[in-house]
Amino acid sequence: MNISFINSFRSEWLKRKRSASSWLVIIGAFFIPLILLIAQFVNHETIALQNTLPNYWEFFFRINWESMAMFLLPMGIVLSTSMTAQIEYKNNTWKQVMTTPQLYSTIFFSKFMVILAMMVQFFILFNIGIYLSAIIPALILSDVPFPQASYPFLMMLEITGKAFVACLPIMALQFLLSLHFRNFMVSVGIGLVMIIGSIMALSWTYGYLVPYTYSAYNFLMSSGEPMETAVSIYLMSVIYFVGFTAVNFLLYLNKAEKG
Questions:
Q1: Contact 122, 76 (CB under 8 A)
Q2: Angstrom distances, CA of residue 155 to CA of 39, 147, 158, 162, 189
């Protein structure tokens, strides 16, 4: 990794910090854990019993991921990717970026890596939120014990890793759409239509061919639902991710007017 790429990445990261996408990542990561935390304070008699269950963490991970994986996570990726990719369109600064002494590949992949880093940031914050929402009631309420089961760090890594891979095609395709459509609402609108369509496609025999379904497939399969697919959704996810990224890069290089 050369100095030029590192500097370009830092520049893109600083631009992201001034955008709404950075707040979207933070708010989105803590949204579901915060709701469950409030619900636990309201129903603390129930969670006193739940905290003694030997499979407590598996149960708690599942209820946190249910709403997140089916809709909120794909929608958050659509919005944050579009916001980050279109910062230059919004501020009319693409021509300034193109006049800097950088290769087109450096500009493209530095912005691409920032979006990937934002996804990693989201998953880290989301897992922190899950853990805090589980232990805070026990710290504050005297009649609520701490979870009796030990924290399953390896299970958390497996759940998070699979969810991350399942979301890669969404991010790659939204990045493609956002770079090649100046109108923010076009890329977001297409993403929203794809998310709604993917939910309906879950009942279709060949639903696994729709890349936006993988987050939901991943959650349902990890919850024990009999979701049979002809090929691994994780393999398909990587194939779509690489394919969308390659097509996007080629279109970007051959675009007549990049600004």
A1: yes
A2: 24, 16, 5, 11, 35
1/22 Cα distance (integer angstroms): 25
Quote the CA–CA distance of 99 and 173 in Å, as a whole number: 27
CA–CA distance, 211 with 218 (Å, rounded to integer): 12
In which residue are the tokens 């969670």 written?
47
How large is the angle between the packed helices 104-140 and 3-17, nearest 10 degrees? Answer: 50
Q: DSSP states of 130-173 as a string?
A: HHHHHHHHHHH-TT-PPPSSPP-HHHHHHHHHHHHHHHHHHHHH
Residue pLDDT, tens place only, 47-93: 777 778 888 898 899 889 988 888 899 999 999 998 888 876 665 56
Angle between helices 233-253 and 214-222 (to 10 degrees): 160
Spatial contact of 177 and 83, defined as CB atoms under 8 Å apart: no
Q: Does 245 score more than 90 pLDDT?
A: yes
Using left for φ > 0, alpha for ψ between -120 and 50, and beta otherwise, residue 27 falls in: alpha
CA 205 to chain centre: 25
Choose among 246, 188, 29: nearest CA to 118.
29
Mean pLDDT of the chain: 86
